[in-house]
Design a protein that fits this description.
The chain is of the alpha/beta class. The chain is 39% helix and 13% strand. The N terminus is likely disordered.
């Protein structure tokens, strides 16, 4: 099938439209407040209504969202120990905060279908370690096996941190991901489903976690809290009245975003459902073509998959190399799947131990990504499929 594209097939392409830019320029001409202010709060509210979730906190990146997710759980005292089970296949900043904040990360191998946490391995690790927290990542937007994981959560009582950074709009059993965990994160990076240039969101239904998030996002102060909550903290700590606006209750960060980014986010949110439909349709074509050809790829029959890229697994490393050459010759971008196997990355602590990650090792040695974004038509997806599936 002939491609309709004349330029390179990018793995990720800009999602901010000319209309979004025109709206931003018109807004800028009014001389608005640019840093964090009313539009950040409006974007948080609108996002929470769309997802839906009770609380949303806008930050400067998905990686910062993950950092605050871990630290809010740590600071809350909701966990009985600092053992946290993390996925072997993920993005580096899905697990880096565990190392940075002094958690004891325990690596769980991947499920062969979703490439997310393997539920059987997860249960074994929970029994063995008594871990108080679990980080679940929806790899490239494909939902994890949530029925099994939520059953384990009920059984073992762990805090579930849900990294949905690559999964905006994906659904499991007709419910949007990012609404299953005690706390969840999203990324609004260039080329993701919805973009604020850089940006991320932390979401939770827990009031205490939300209060901590608001503070550690901005230096550790309480300025962004509801007035009654701030007053309660000031009274509890005997803060001097004059000093109250600059009393710091937690060792925080400065990972705020700005009204400028929120203005783009509001424009993007107006069209996000159209973007999601296109990505879902593209992913369905990939999945159908690859499965019909007997090619290993991600799948979850209970999910509506809105991916940022399609993941395939070659027969072996040499087969992947041949696929990479064919894709390069057709100007189709590709790359590995996340870190592959976490413990094979140089940043992983030598004291962190290894995991018998048969699936994660296969991802590391044979996994590759293919483009999925709204600028790709069905003909483009078929063309990319043909290019890969013709490689012996």
């Amino acid at each position: 099938m002939k491609s309709t594209m004349k330029e390179k097939y990018l793995l990720a392409d800009e999602t901010i439209s000319k209309q979004n830019i025109d709206e931003l320029i018109a807004w800028l001409k009014t001389g608005p407040w640019l840093t964090q202010g009313a539009l950040v709060r409006e974007f948080e509210r609108r996002w929470g209504e769309w997802l839906p979730v009770k609380h949303s906190v806008f930050v400067n990146s998905g990686s910062s969202a993950n950092l605050l997710m871990y630290d809010s759980v740590r600071l809350s005292g909701k966990i009985k120990n600092k053992k946290v089970i993390v996925p072997a296949v993920c993005w580096p900043t899905s697990v880096a905060p565990a190392i940075q904040l002094g958690f004891e990360p325990i690596v769980c191998d991947a499920d062969p279908d979703t490439l997310a946490l393997d539920p059987e391995e997860l249960e074994r690790l929970l029994r063995q370690t008594g871990a108080a927290a679990v980080v679940m990542v929806h790899i490239l937007g494909v939902p994890a096996n949530l029925d099994a994981i939520l059953k384990l959560k009920k059984k073992f009582g762990f805090i579930l941190m849900e990294d949905s950074c690559a999964a905006t709009g994906s659904e499991y059993d007709s419910r949007r991901v990012g609404t299953f965990g005690d706390i969840s994160t999203f990324s609004f990076f260039y080329g993701h489903h919805l973009s604020t240039i850089e940006g991320g969101m932390v979401c939770t239904v827990d009031d205490e976690l939300h209060d901590i998030l608001l503070q550690i996002r901005s230096h550790g102060w309480a300025k962004d809290l509801p007035p009654d909550t701030e007053a309660g903290q000031a009274n509890a700590h005997h803060a001097m009245e004059f000093n109250r606006p600059f009393t710091f209750y937690y060792p925080g960060y400065n990972v705020r975003s700005a009204d400028l980014n929120a203005r783009i986010g509001l424009s993007q949110l107006a069209g996000v459902d159209t973007v999601i439909r296109r990505r879902i349709e593209n992913h369905a074509i990939y999945q159908s073509r690859f499965q019909d050809a007997g090619f290993d790829c991600q799948k979850n029959p209970k999910a509506s998959i809105c991916s940022i890229a399609f993941a395939g697994l070659a027969k072996n490393s040499a087969h992947r190399d041949r696929i990479a050459v064919a894709l390069r010759d057709k100007h189709i971008e590709t790359r590995p799947i996340g870190v592959g196997n976490l413990v094979r990355q140089p940043f992983w602590p030598k004291t962190g131990g290894r995991v018998e990650g048969k699936v994660a090792d296969r991802v590391y040695e044979t996994g590759f990504q293919l483009p999925n974004h709204p600028k790709l038509s069905p003909d483009d997806i078929h063309y990319i499929c043909d290019t890969v599936l013709e490689v012996e």
